[in-house]
Amino acid sequence: MNNRSTPTLEQDRIISLDMLRGFALLGIILANSLHFQFGLLYDTSITTPYANGGIDRLTESFIFIFVQASFYPLFSFLFGYGMALQKERLLDKGLNFNAVFWRRTAILGLVGYLHAMYLWNGDILFTYAWASVLLFFCLMMPARGLIITGLILVGLLGSCSLVPDSFYEFGMSDQEMNPTDEFSEKEVVVLSEGSYADVVEFRQTENPIFPGIFGDIVFIATQVIGVIGLILLGAYVMRKGWIKDPITHKKKWKIIMWVGLGVALLTKSPLTLAPDSIQLATLQSYVGGPFLTAFFVSAFVLAVTTERGKKILQPLAYAGRMAFTNYLFQSLIMTTIFYHYGFGLFNSVGVFAGAMIAVAVFIIQLILSKVWLSYFRMGPLEWIWRAGTYLQLPPLKKESK
Predict the structure, then answer these.
(1) Signal sequence span per UniProt (predicted)?
(2) Is 176 strand, coil or helix?
(3) What does the CA dihedral 88, 91, 95, 96 come to, rounded to 10 degrees?
(4) Is the pLDDT of residue 12 over 60?
(5) What are the pLDDT digits (tens) for 371-397?
(6) What does the pLDDT read at residue 176?
(7) What pTM was computed for the model?
């Protein structure tokens, strides 16, 4: 009997998850198009996002309502689902989940750190690695514990939207600069004019909260708090088999879909009317984002139950099977396009053009992913990640027929 842990075989993959991962990649690059070309915090007071007038504002509103703050929750949900699925499969085979989990997490953390320092500081992988430390212990809970804990955490974040804008201004004089404003001003300068070395130095010394190691810790901690609830909900859905057997749970998915869409539209739309409101931004992120994620997941799961839906969404699965590789290459391509050390389009083309560039990059990734997967079993970075996780070289090239 082989007691070594082995990677997931191609025939064991759940196609709807790959489609969702592909869709998440599209949403991530579209949402991040604002940040690649205008800075991490997207401060419109010191940048010029509306170079093309009304179409830029219309595009921004579309991104605010249908994209922003809805795809990192989707990635978080899928991450939790994937880790819970991996644990179940390994334990069913009588294999050692703990060693695989910690090797996988260590590699993820290392790649995430390198990505944040040397490619783009909007990285989410390093956050997932730290969140995985909590997830390891949470996966010992029964399904009931996962959903209760997940809903409490998501609900606590959502309650932050009750805090009025006046609270954030309390105690600050007119002359005193908000740390996030100072961060954004420095970032705009370095991304518009700086060399690659300048950008790396900026990332190593600055963060949006306050300088120093303690500021870095607080920044990471807030990111972990922002994703762990959705990660636990993903693990719960996996345990209950709602995606693996969508027909049985079709009624649940329909309810989730329509409730998710309704609440998302009500809570994400107001920000388009007052984009400088911190309270509405919080409402959009911590309430609207998770509900729109619920809509996306349910809509995809239901669509895949039909042959027509499968056929339409199939191309997304190619990108989704290479999500790790595609996510990192999005950062490489977009920073090269926008930063001064590349083509230097930072803060110059407007929201609409930036969004079109993002969509074009994703379409190219779809095509390249399909071509790659016609010859290979997985993406190049997926292969490296799995080799380190399972301590064996998985087959990469497909056997010729």
Answers:
(1) none
(2) coil
(3) 80
(4) no
(5) 999 999 999 999 999 999 999 999 999
(6) 54
(7) 0.92
User: Would the pLDDT of 305 be above 50?
Assistant: yes
Distance CA 30, CA 131 (A): 24
Nearest to 85 by CA among 229, 223, 236, 215: 236
401 residue type, one letter: K
Long-range pairs for 177-185 at CB < 8 Å and ≥24 separation?
A: 179/208, 179/209, 179/210, 180/41, 180/43, 180/208, 180/209, 181/43, 183/40, 183/41, 183/207, 183/208, 184/39, 184/40, 184/41, 184/43, 184/46, 184/208, 185/46
User: What is the structure's pLDDT at 401?
Assistant: 56
Distances (CA, A) of 369 to 13, 112, 374: 17, 22, 9
Q: Which two tokens stand for residue 329?
A: 């290459």
**Backbone φ and ψ of 257, nearest 5°:** -60, -50
Measure Cα distances from 266 to 65, 155, 163, 198, 292 in Å. Answer: 10, 17, 18, 42, 11
The answer to whether 377 and 397 are in contact (CB under 8 A) is yes
